[in-house]
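Work Package 3 (structural annotation) set out to generate three-dimensional models for the target panel prioritized at the project kickoff. During this period the team completed the workflow that converts sequence records into discrete structure tokens, so that structures can be stored uniformly alongside our sequence database. As a representative example, we reproduce one entry of 189 residues exactly as it appears in the project archive.
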Amino acid sequence: MSVTTTGPSALTHTGANDTLHRAGIALRGIIAIALGCLAIYYSTNTTLLIGAFGIFALIDGIARVIIALRSTGRDKAWLIHGLEGLVGIALGIVTFRFVGDLIALTWTIAEWSFGIGALTIVFAGVTWGRLRDAWLWMLAGIVLIALGVALLWYTRGGLRTPGIAVGLGALVYGIVSLGIAVRTQHHRA
């Protein structure tokens, strides 16, 4: 996760503060936006949505594990990055192995949203005093948890509504992720 530090005790460089991490966050945002557009346009194509989310969860999980492995010893948030990555990879595998319909996909995405959202909020809390953009991470976590709640709520609305809810949630998450990547790049100078 790309971060910008502030204050006298701020880290001058963490493993999470380089170009590769910003690019990873931007890539996640772009993939989430693409998934959101697919989910809205093809809201009833179960196979496409299952594949798209499975690929997104795996790519997102791998990116988060790489961020954790590249974090310096001074960056104690590496464990949170690693846990987020493991959640993403596990749910990506679950998606391909066990999800067969849109309702099951909706519940799987809700689980991913709750897990990643909670860990993102913890990350924001752990780094609040030293990261300039910790509030954006908090916002991303809240958006993910709200997406999980919306998905569980709209599961009762038929097979079309969860696809649209997934799409809208992915679009918002993608935009917030891009905002984090761009804002951090802007403040880095």
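The chain has one domain: 16-187.
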